[in-house]
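User: Run a structure prediction on this.
Assistant: Running it now.
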Amino acid sequence: MHRIASAAVVALGLALVAPGSSGAATSSSCPTPPKVDADNFNRPGGDSGANVANPYFPLTPGKTYVYRGKEDDHPTEDRFAVTDKTKSFTIGGGTIKAREVHDQVFTNNKLTEDTFDWFAQDDDGTVWYFGEDTKELEDGQVVSTEGSWEAGVKGANAGIFMEANPKVGDKYKQEDAKGVAEDCAEILSTTASVKVPYGSFNDAVQTKEFSLLEPGVEDNKWYAKGIGEVREETVKGGNDFLELVSIK
């Protein structure tokens, strides 16, 4: 799920470097991810990247994750459905297939956001974010597509969504579409404990996530091994939260 992160933060971070990148991060930036190489998405059975099996962000076709909480003080439900569909991206010297996820947000029981996200896993196990087609709705009508982007289109690059081996202090760019989507993440812990309606988990990865386009907002997310994301909350600039309540 990528809900709150699209409205996220000013980083407090140290000068840390994303895997495969160079240069230091500052309090208002994060390292640009390395360019994707299609040759790195060819592991056996990987379907050129569409088989996403990272333990902290597994995407099994047919599973729907249901989250509940509040956004802007309104009751909210998020349905994160992993589809059996893929989208092909011609980038990095070849074609990479990404898994398509259908993410819908319901506010006061009305559909307010309808998004298709695309993720692919490289041979080392890192999950990359290849873009999203997002629509905001009011009374059933589309009022905005702001934030939509695709890797390889208009200079946008794929971002790192979940590392193969997260380490405290790692900082990386999840979305790299300049002026459109520039979300970042920093690993705060790999041994966090978190309790949500779906269950209690230890040794979770806890991240701080933020956007270079929305300074002043900061979110934390928790990813449980073998499950994926289980909780997210705004810790600076708001009081939104979502918790995993079921997997169907």
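The two ends are 15 Å apart (CA to CA).
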